[in-house]
Amino acid sequence: MTDQVEALLREYTVKLRAVFRGQLEEDVTAAVRKAFSGTGAPANRSDTAGKGMRPPKTKTPARTKRGKGGKRSPEQMAKQAERLLAYISANPGQRSEQIAEGTKFSTGELALPLRKLVADKKLKSTGKARGTMYTVAK
């Protein structure tokens, strides 16, 4: 009797796996079609042929604010440099972390404007690495 029960359980398990696998395939196919077509309708094969199932390229609107990894415009850099110069004039001898806290910039945003101001000899830096302090050059 134990052999019969085990055989029935194995048969039931195989059938149940087949049902789950079939349902999973249907769900994944429907989700992919919906993602690429935007409506859930079957995607036209010609839309994705040779493209590795990538969605069609669409024109994205111009961003007003830069996203992560986006470049700052020269105008934005100039404004940030002006703010930094004004802040450092009022608070000389601070490190970049302190300047970031006072200006509400991230330390990553400060790096390039600080380097440019030092290169343009508008700022003077003393120290190394995190201990670098900035003052206005005279």
User: What fold name goes in the CATH topology slot of the largest domain?
Assistant: Arc Repressor Mutant, subunit A
Low-confidence stretches: none
Gross morphology: elongated
Range of strand content:
5-15%
Biggest sheet, spatial arrangement of strands: 1-3-2
* Rg over alpha carbons: 30 Å
Q: What level of helicity do the residues show? A: 55-70%
What's the number of structural domains? 2
Oligomer: single chain
Largest sheet data: 3 strands, antiparallel
Number of helices: 5
Amino-to-carboxy terminus distance: 98 Å
Q: In total, how many beta strands? A: 3
String of helices and strands: HHHEHHEE
CATH superfamily membership of the largest domain: Winged helix-like DNA-binding domain superfamily/Winged helix DNA-binding domain
CATH architecture of the largest domain: Orthogonal Bundle
